[in-house]
Amino acid sequence: MVPRIFAAVLIAELLGSLDAGVTDTGPWLCQPAPRCGDQPYNPLEQCCHNDTILPLNATQLCVPNCIFYPCFQHCCLESLGSQNQAVVTFKVPGIKPDCRSSPISRICAQVRTPPDRPSARSDFI
């Protein structure tokens, strides 16, 4: 009886020591790398924006004096009568950016659009 218990303990110890040097590789081992177009990318350091791989800290110009982070935000241009404004919204993971339903990050400066009228010589002076 004692030899059987000893053998069981010895086998359990041997089996437990086999994976002692293995580090946890996490869920990436069994999942394919995300792709941007035909290129794989590391989502811990990069994102895919319009089929272009960008670093997570990349910025782009939405309108003059209004930058946004394309990995996390979306630039929406809105028209309100004779005024245009840019609204920066948050991207919701797993959902295609939608200017109407995405949470607003900030509203950029409004730009007044002059009404259409014929040109006059005084406009050039």
From TrEMBL:
Superkingdom of origin: Eukaryota
Q: Has UniProt tagged this entry with the keyword Oxidoreductase?
A: no
| Localisation | Secreted
Which stretch is the leader sequence?
1-20
The answer to keyword NAD applying to this record is no
One Pfam annotation reads IGFL
Entry's Gene Ontology molecular function annotations? signaling receptor binding
Q: Which family does it belong to?
A: Belongs to the IGFL family.
Protein name stated in the entry: Insulin growth factor-like family member 4
